Structure formats: C-alpha cells, structure tokens
Records
---
Amino acid sequence: MPSKTACAAIGIDLGGTNLRGAVVESGKLLGEPVYVETPDRPEKIVDALVKLIEDLLVEAQAAGMKRDSICGVGIATAGVVKCDTGEVIGSTGNLPGWAGTKIREVIEDRVGLCVHVENDANAAAYGEARIDELKDLHCIVVVTLGTGIGGGIVIDGKLLHGRGWAAGEIGHMSIALDDSRLCTCGLYNCWEAYGSGRGLLTTAREFIAGQKDNYLQSSLSKEEELTTYMLFQEAKAGDRLACSIVRRWHEHLTIGIVNLTHILNPDCFVITGGLSQACDLELLKRLTVEKALHNIGETVEIRASRLETNAGLIGAAQSVIDEVRVGVPARS
Amino acid sequence: MPSKTACAAIGIDLGGTNLRGAVVESGKLLGEPVYVETPDRPEKIVDALVKLIEDLLVEAQAAGMKRDSICGVGIATAGVVKCDTGEVIGSTGNLPGWAGTKIREVIEDRVGLCVHVENDANAAAYGEARIDELKDLHCIVVVTLGTGIGGGIVIDGKLLHGRGWAAGEIGHMSIALDDSRLCTCGLYNCWEAYGSGRGLLTTAREFIAGQKDNYLQSSLSKEEELTTYMLFQEAKAGDRLACSIVRRWHEHLTIGIVNLTHILNPDCFVITGGLSQACDLELLKRLTVEKALHNIGETVEIRASRLETNAGLIGAAQSVIDEVRVGVPARS
C-alpha cells in the first residue's frame, strides 16, 4: 500500500474523444499529458485505462519517482458518478454504454492502486479550488463554459455531491418563463440554453433574424455557417451586431452568476472551459454588481481558470491524494 | 460560565411587531413563548431584550431549572447578520436604525451569558434542520413562504453563511427574462416576485385582467380587495379561476425548487412560513419531478415545517447551544 504521505497520483480525464493522463505531484503535471483515443466499447475503455495507467507508472519510475509515492488513480469521466462506489450511474453523452460500469472496482482489481472516480465538471472544480490561492476559501463555484454549461461547488474544501450525486448541475437552472428555448437536456429555459456556446449561437440567430438593413452592414451577413469563434472575432474587430450579441451573451451569463451569488454567496467564481477565454470577466463582474442585491454582488470575486484544460485531470488526481491522506476506508 | 453539557438556552425572535422569547431545552419550548411589543428605537430594543432575558431566567428558575444549565441566548433578527461579531450589517426592513447595532456585545455585557445572533430566516432553517429526523442529513434547504420568500441552507449540520453573510437569499434568484415584475428589493424577475404571497396576488391580478366573461362566473369578481386567504378559500371551494391562479403559483414555486435541486441536489426541502399551509406539497413534488433533470427530481423530498412559527426562536437557541458545546472561542 502507498504511504499516507505520498503526494503524487495518476490523473486521467476520460472524454468522448480521448483519454488523457498524467502523473500529478503537488498539483502539477510531471511531464506532458499522454493522449489515447477513446475506444468505442466499455470493456475496451477499461483496457485502455489500465494500459494508460501502466504506461504512466513506467514513465514515473523512469523519471526517478518511487512506485509507492504514487498513492492512487483519479479518473474524471462524463456522467453522474456515485463516488463512494466509483460507478457511473447517469447518462454519459458521448460514451455509449458506459453507465453502469463499476470503474473503481474493475480498475482497482487490475492495477492494485486506490481509484477515485469523479464527474468531470466536479473534478475540474476540485482541481481549481485546491490551488494554493483558493484552497482555504469557504465556498468556490467553478463554472465550465463550453458547448454546454457545467459546474462544481466546493465548500470547506469538499465537493458538494448531493443526495443523488448530481449537485452542481448549474447549467440546468431555469432563467426564463417563456419556453422559447429547448435545452439539449429536454427541459426548457435552462441557463445553458442561453449562456453556453450553443446558447450564444441561438441568441445570434435571433439577433440576425431581427435585423433588416443593419444586418447588411455586419460582417456576419457574409458568413454562411455561424460559429462562436466567428462571433468573438467580429466583435473584437468592432462589428456592431456581433458586439450586441456578445454583450447579450454576457447578460445571460450574469443571470446564472447572480442566482448562484444570491443562493450561496460564494467567496469566488472560477470561469473555465472552452469559451472562458472569450468571456470578459470585468464586464461579468460589473453586470453582477448591477443585477445582485446591494452589497452582495460587490463582495464576489470572478476569476479565470488557472489549470485550464488540465483541471479535470489534476482535480481527479488530487481527489485520490486527499482521500488516501485522510484515510477514507478502502472499498469493502 | 455555563457548563459544556448545558442543553438549554433562551431563544428570541426579534420581529418588527414583537419580541418573542422562550427557554428552549432539547429542541422544545419550556412553556409558552413570552411576547413583548418591539420598541421603536435601537437602544430601547436592547433594553427590552435584556428585560425579556431576565424575565425568562426567573421563569426558568421558578420551573426548577438551574441557572447554569442555561448556556446562552440566541437571537433571530431581520437583516444581514455578521454572526462572528453578532452585528447587524444589512438592511432590516421594519426595524429602522437597527443596522450597525453590536447586539452580541451589548447583550453579553449586560446579561453575562453567551449570545449568538442569527438572521431570522437562517435561524428558522437551523431550527428545522436540527430536528431528530433531519439532523444527520447532508444538505437541507428551508424555504420560508410569506409576504416574501426567505431561505436557509444547512450543509453537514452547519448553516451556509457565505462570504458576505448573505447566503440563502433564494427569493432573489431570477426566474424570468422579461422584466415584467419588479421585486420589493429593487430587482426585476426575482422568484419572490412570483412565488411569495405578494407574487401570488400579482399573478391573480394578471389572470383577472385577462378574463372576460369567465371572470363574472368567478367568486373573485365579487370581491373588492384581493387577499391570498380569499384566493385559497375560493380555490378550495372549486372556483375555476381561483384554481388556475393557485395552480400557476405552484408552477412558479416549482421553478425555484427545481433550480435549487439542480444546484445543490439537497436531501430535503422544508417548506415553512405563513403560506406554507396553503402549499400543496404533493403537487409541488409532482411538478418538481416533471421539471427537473431525469432521476434528480425523483430523489428530492419536500416536507412541511415541524416547528412552524417557533422555528426562528428554537433555531436561535439551538445555535448558541451548539456553539457552546463545540467550544467556539469567546469574543475577544
């Protein structure tokens, strides 16, 4: 068994396209992450995970790390994860058939290391919240802006999992009453249907449809297929229509941030994910102060991600390190 | 100093109309609560609090309780409360001039007992969450339905206070985009502007204004000044218009419950406050299952208050008992 003072672990981010793994020590990656294509069937994914772990152990030893300084493996995966058993219990988007796999059990049996499995948005949140500057804060909300909106809530250093392991589904809070936007989850009015990349494109199409002559003056009129990248580029270049659309996107994002502020009054938000770079955090903060109760918006900090694409991988590794440190009982 | 095993405390609920106090032991009131009219000036309120505490101590001794079995005084008050110093820092509605009063300091100096001051909605939440059936749950959200909507979140037995002591302002999450309803807080689209008693009346007026001939068939057409009581009575008696209005109110309530479910995935909601009796919890649960993500709404429990109007008083007393028990350092 690894010692309780071991402070390195293997972190793996299991996405629909790639498995991405690295050895994580003191919150940092030991070398570049290793990528493997995600196989199409659950049993093949398990084999690929085992091989990736074994390769990373060899790499760590080659770098001079002792085997027993690696205390376990943290795996971040899509889907609702029952962390106490390490089983995926809810829908997993682009990993068909993955729900029901007892990941912790099968991997522990095959590699002989402690395994912790975590939902990917939660793992990213844990990674971000555990960095030195933030780790002593009381409440941190991590918002992942991408095609959808994900999130994780860390209170007193612990992830909030919730009764059904589903806490942090912040993208599916309802922010409208008119049922005009259907979310991919099947519900109407979700924050995600407005604030995600997909939501931004819907807003853009509504704006463009509402334009008459003005539209012809916009660069957007020249483009056939709209992308978020194009919108941000045009807004940056000063296109008025694109600027209005991007401004409205920030207003939509503000609603969720303000709601979370009123409910949790967190110390800090961390904005991460593929669209986070395009998000103007100063504007978001100004709008939050404007739309929140007096004296409440002012106290909230909105920060950019520190770990970016490695947050999930680092967070998953950190969660198994912390689990071993506090001596969570082994699976019976 | 009281012993750490003392398990009784004085609880006081400081409202705009009355101060209401009682000795609380093992979560129950020792005798009927004592009512005193709330004076109009802060220094007079302090005098009235001190007198009420002294009267309750005498009453407790007359009932055979030893002085040192009372470990302190818990005070629930309107306003944002900085609990570590026991100071009211935010607006206090109908207690003008009360903000800025160092309640804990002045009362401790005058009565020689530990004092804990808590926001009234939070105190009520703490009271409800600490009852035997719920005290071991991970996350409980208490929703207070009255003229407004208040709330308190208890995680692992502790109130979530937030960075600026303002967590639990659940009534001010935004649930609409159209800016058609202004909340008393000055913001638009708040859940409270739809789900509170005031919100219900606004919905009713919108429904009535939208009626033509149907309206004349409704009992509501005969009434001059609409009240929530009247609406619930007419709905109970089968008036179709009143039934539609009350149904819509439940739909509005559901939105906030679902949002909190997606964010926190709590073990349980407790519905309390003046309008909670009128709320059909079975309907609320059914609508929550319908409007929440698959498998998430199903796991949430929605319960009626156990402590009703005494929740704030009991919760405040319980908070000082728990504070003394765990040995929170005394004010320096």
Note: The radius of gyration of chain A is 21 Å.
---
Amino acid sequence: MHQLKDIIENKIISNLTKSFPRSPLKLNELHETDAEIIQLENSPYDLAITIDTISEEIKTGLYSDPYEIGWMSVMVNMSDLAAVGASPIGIVISQILPQNISDEFIEKLQQGINDSCKKCGTFVLGGDTNLGDELIISGCAIGTIEKGKYLKRVGCKTGDKIYTSGNIGTGNAYAFQKLFSKNDSQFVYHPTAKLEWRNILKKYSSSCIDTSDGIISSLDQLMRLNNVGFKFRNDWDKAMDCSSEQLFGNNNLPIWLLLAGEHGEFELLFTIPAEKKLDFLKEASHLYLKPIYLGETTEDPKISLNLYNKEQSLDTEKIRNLTFEKDFSPSKYLKKLLEIDTSFKNA
Amino acid sequence: MHQLKDIIENKIISNLTKSFPRSPLKLNELHETDAEIIQLENSPYDLAITIDTISEEIKTGLYSDPYEIGWMSVMVNMSDLAAVGASPIGIVISQILPQNISDEFIEKLQQGINDSCKKCGTFVLGGDTNLGDELIISGCAIGTIEKGKYLKRVGCKTGDKIYTSGNIGTGNAYAFQKLFSKNDSQFVYHPTAKLEWRNILKKYSSSCIDTSDGIISSLDQLMRLNNVGFKFRNDWDKAMDCSSEQLFGNNNLPIWLLLAGEHGEFELLFTIPAEKKLDFLKEASHLYLKPIYLGETTEDPKISLNLYNKEQSLDTEKIRNLTFEKDFSPSKYLKKLLEIDTSFKNA
C-alpha cells in the first residue's frame, strides 16, 4: 500500500504538525482537504481557511511579472477554497517588499491582486507589509460552506470516473516556456479558481482536489488517501490543452510530462461514481460547464498510462519527490523527468 | 490637525490598499481596528481576521531563538484579536524555512508556536511550508466577536483616562538588551495577548489598540484617528516595568525611550470615559486585572510628557518615521532617539 509519508512533502507537513493538538472545531483530517474546515457554532455554515505563499516561484524566475505575481497570490488560495466547495468571503495578504522595488512594480502587483479578487467575486480584507530582501506574498483566504457539505479528497471508490474542470497541462507548459524556451512568444497562463463548480460537485463528486501541483501529484495524493489506483483513458492526449501540447511537440518533449511536472494548472480534479455519470454530465452541460474525462479509478493502487503503445505504471513517488532532491534546479528536474521517459521508451 | 498620512507606515498601507474595492461585509474602516471585522450573515457573531509576518525582527537579529520566533509568530496575531475583543478560533501559519535549517531548530520553532497557542487557548488550524533563503513566518488568525461588539481605535473623547493592561517598556528594553548590550543576562521578554480583557473593555472602553509598535506609536495613532491629544501622568515612570527601567538606568539611557521605541510590549492601551472610571476599576479588581494608569486624553491634539521637570510636547511624527529612514539600522535609530532626548534636556 502506498503511504502518504512516502512523499517528502507529506512527511514535512506531518512532521511540522505532529506536535500540534487538534482543534475541536476542525472538521477535516490532515491531508484530507485543500483548505481547513472549521465548525462555526450557531451558524448555518462552516468556515474554510487556507494560507499559501508565493516565494519559490518568484525565486526560480517562474513568476516575474508583477501583475502575474499579484494574480497568482490570490488565485492559489481561491483554488483551495474551490476544491472544498467554499464561497469566498475574502483574503488578507502579507507582502514582503524589497527596499528597491519601484512604484510601478508595486502598482502592477496590486492590480494583479485586485483583478484576481474581482474575477473570484471577492475582496482584499486587509493585510500586512514588511520590507525584506526578496519579494514574498502570503495570502490567507476564508470562505463559507453550507454545514457539513464540504468537498474532500477522500471518498472515491473503484470504478469512479475521473474528470478535470478544464483541459490540462497549461501549468507545466508555462513553466517550460518561462524557464527553458528562448522563444519570445509568451505562452498564455492565467489560471482561474473553479469556484463555479461548487454546487454540482457537492451533488455528484466522491472526491476533489485542485491540480496546483500538477495532475500526477494530485492523482498520487488521491491514491494514497483512498487506497485506489487510476488508469488514464487510452486517448488521454485528448484531455490536454492544445497550445500546451503544441509547445511541447515543437520542443520535442514528451506530452505526458505536461501531467508529471509539479507546476499545476489549478483546475479541479474530481471523481464521479459511475452510476451518477450521466446525470452529472447532463447537469454540467446545462450549466455550461465542460468536464474533461481523464480516466477511471481502479482497485490496484497504481497510476497507469498508455505510453509508447504500452500500458505503463508510473513511479509517482519518485516523480513527486524529484523537487525535493538536494541539488534541485529546474534543468536538473527536467533532465530527470526525461530519463524516466527514456525508461518508458525502452520498456 | 495631525493626519494619518503624515506617518509613513500609514501612507504605505493607504497606498497599497487604495485601488482595492471595499467588501460589503467589512465592518471596520482602514486604520480603525487592529484586526479586520467581517460580518457573518445569519450568525450571532462577526469574524475578526488578521495577518502578521515575522521577518524584519529575524533579519535584524532582534529575534533569534527559534522558540521565541515561534511564540511571537502566534502572539502578535493573537494580540490583534485581543485589541478588537475577539475570541480566537485559531491560526494558520505559513513558514518559509532555509534549506540548511536543523531539525532541532524546527522542533523548537514548532514548540514555541504550540505553547503560544496553548497560552491563548487556541489551535494551529493548518499551514503552508516553503523553502527559502531566510526564515520568515506569517500567521493569519481568526476569531469571533458578538455581533457589533468589536473594539475600535476610534471613540475616545477629551477627558477620557488612558490605561494599559500591564506595565510598559518591556519590548524596547528587550530590543536594547538583544541588539546593544554585551551583558549576557537575558532580559525576560515573553509577551502574552491580553485576551482576558475582552469583556471588561467591551463594557467600559472608548477606544483600544495594542502596543505592538510601542506606547508612543499607539498613542500617536489614536491621536490622529480621534483628533485628541494625550498627556502622560506626571509620575509616568510608575507605569513602567521595573526591570526595563533598571536596564535602561544601568545603561544610562533615558527611561522615556522605553515609550518611544518601536518594539512594543503587546499590552492593550485603551481609554475609559472619566465617569466610568470607578466602576471600571472596581470590576477590573474583581477580575484580578490590573490596569496601569498612563494619563489623560486632552483637547489639544499633541502628546506631552513631563521630562526634565518640564512638560514637553513630543514630535511623534518624527519619532514614528525614524524607522523608515533610508539608512535605517538599530544603532542609527538609537542615536536619533538620543538626539531627541538631548533636545529635551536643553529645552
């Protein structure tokens, strides 16, 4: 059985939190939800709260445009709220600004924050500012959920259908373009939290997670939490975002790495019990939502994908732990992923 | 009239937030409260939320002990909740940890976080971890307040009595000891959020702020918000913390600088209308709370203190803006404060 603690990130989180007693008001278990769910007494709803910091992405150069940094600092948090089915109340933001930052940079940063909030129908409620060496933005978002109706990562069963809320691969396509490509034509990456899926997912889904760490990480986490496996549809490339596929194609990169990289597309990934599939698709269509079919939940706890005309089982533990290697750099990371691809070609 | 915007910190906050539309659920105005107050619909209470980051204090060496850093990262946020009269629900914490940090350091850091939560009767609800160059901790605390009953910085009137929730000066005494003194004997600085004052302050106080930025900053902010002045009691040294006074005395530093420095003691500073004073003191005594009398609110909007046998008016704008000078360093800061003291001696 695959264990949560085999993934370094899970182990770090468990280690940091092991000494903390559990709040009697906290409804979710550790790792079980994308945001924390807190019981509000004498209230028709519960509270969702999440905190997320943008720092590594700025440091590696993945995010450099101030507007984009502002946009993402809100969106990553709103995506967590979307993944638990919450309606956002707002966000508080702590900004560490370098001394030498320009007024223009700050203005664009705030514009990105503002537009991101607008897109989610929410508000900056307050914040905190410090001076520092590097630009670092932490956002903490809160939202409400009808009592007991939050979405969880746990609950999927063998035979459930797996969907995403949109075509996938954009996060890793963007990361490649930004960090490796000399081509000036900017790949468009402008994720939005999928808050509008809230009600339909509460009605039909058996588990839900956002793809902030990419598709394979999300599936791997669901596998470990639910002790099930996932088999991608044979024509899984149909689920991919077209321009992402083109970008990777033009650069002779294997398309499946768009699923494997850790920079996600911030879609929702969810499972629907087979018997609810038709009703779900019908209602989604009425709501102008377009779920993308990705595959099926299997009994055997592994993640498998048709690659080079062969059903191949992915070593998702190895893939997920690559970013925690001591000498991590984007180019070493890509090299290791390509080595894994070579092993599939030769399999 | 002294304006909020004459203080660089206020100006930065106003500039950062000017483009953000106001949430219809937000009850407080900008600068008006220590935490944001958010209306919860269909609920007997409102929500308080605050975010605060410990970074500059680590960078300058003011906080270096991991336990203390953990303790303070919770306490600064709980103090904001105390200053609005909220009952904490919990805190989420984003930690940026340097790559080379030791397991022992991390353990003590978490222990500090844990003990600080315990002291406040609250819990870590969740968090986020990143790797980075420097240790940076952001906490975001939430709490509840009986509907419409939150404490504000605005509301005090001429003649109101000023109190603090405890003896003052410890924050700046600690900062001096830590940054300037070669003496090994550690000055004890272990602030606790004054959450237990909640009910009595809701009943009697006309304004409240925490002293996270020191006494003079807090009074100056109240002055600007309420267009009143403050006159310290003639024997204001009686309000000081004994060991802080001793430390400054032993180092030939003017005692009043314990009020002026920007590293606060995290007490609550509040005003009580004169006619309520006796009832307030009686009830405080029953609750084993010991308010420290500091002075009186005056019509003339200035802050005055008996110094060198003369009533002196403090240039609080100058004092507060010292930390924002371009070439700021703790030693330059102390030097400038001592220059101001010299001008009083010669006045």
Note: The mean pLDDT of chain A is 95.
